[in-house]
Structure formats: C-alpha cells, structure tokens
Amino acid sequence: MRRKLPNTARLRKIRTEHQTWLKKLGIDRISLRRRWKKLTKESWFPSYTTDDNYPPTSDKIPVGTSAKKERMQYSGERKLIGIATMHKSNQVPVFEEQDVKDIANMRR
User: Fold this and answer.
1) Of all helices (H) and strands (E), which one includes residue 36?
2) φ and ψ at residue 41, rounded to 5 degrees
3) Domain ranges of the chain
4) Pairwise CA distance, residues 18 & 24, whole Å
C-alpha cells in the first residue's frame, strides 16, 4: 500500500536538491535517456575475438599425461580383530588388544 506524501514546501525543496544532485552525477532521467540512445547492441556484450599478441589457449582437458595410480593391496601386516563402537554409533576398526582397552576406558 502506497501512501502519498503531502506536497509541502520542505518536501519540494528536498526533491529539487535531490534532482540537482542526480544531474551533477549524470544519472538523472534526461542524462540516462541520452546514454541509452547511444548504446548499441554490440556495446552490451564484450568482444571475444582473439588477439595475436597472446599465446593460444585451449579448452581441452589433457588426457593421459600422468602416471597410473598403483593399485592398493592388503599386505597382511596388521590383522583386523573387530569393530568397536564409540560415541553415538561411531564405528572404529580395532587392530590390537591395546586399542580395545583404550576404547573401553574412553569417556565423553
């Protein structure tokens, strides 16, 4: 809901000061219309033409330039005893007896 302000002398003075300020910045209605008429559709978008002074670039992703990752394999050094449940159903692998004792003594 819009409310119309009363047309008082103080409000008229403030509006004229505001209009002069906008004109000084060059963003009043008349200045904006002049600028809008000068604009062409070509000036809206940046130029994407290539420049000979820059080295050529490519959008292609290089394939096959890195070494293949080695496959992970279980060595058998550590044996999994079991899975312990810690705080709030957080499951943790257990490899040694000491791990079981540490988890059992652990508190919040």
Assistant:
1) helix 29-38
2) -65, -30
3) 9-40, 80-108
4) 10
> Which pLDDT tens digits describe the chain residue by residue (108 residues)?
788 888 899 999 999 999 999 989 888 888 888 888 877 666 677 777 777 787 777 777 777 667 888 898 878 788 888 888 887 778 888 888 888 888 888 765
Please list the residues that pair with 92 across neighbouring strands.
84
Instruction: Of 14, 23, 18, give the one whose Cα is nearest residue 5.
Output: 14
Q: How many helices (H) and strands (E) does the chain have?
A: 4, 2
Q: What is the CA angle 78-91-89, rounded to 5? A: 170
The answer to whether the CB of 60 falls within 8 A of the CB of 73 is no
CA angle 29, 5, 20 (to 5 degrees): 30
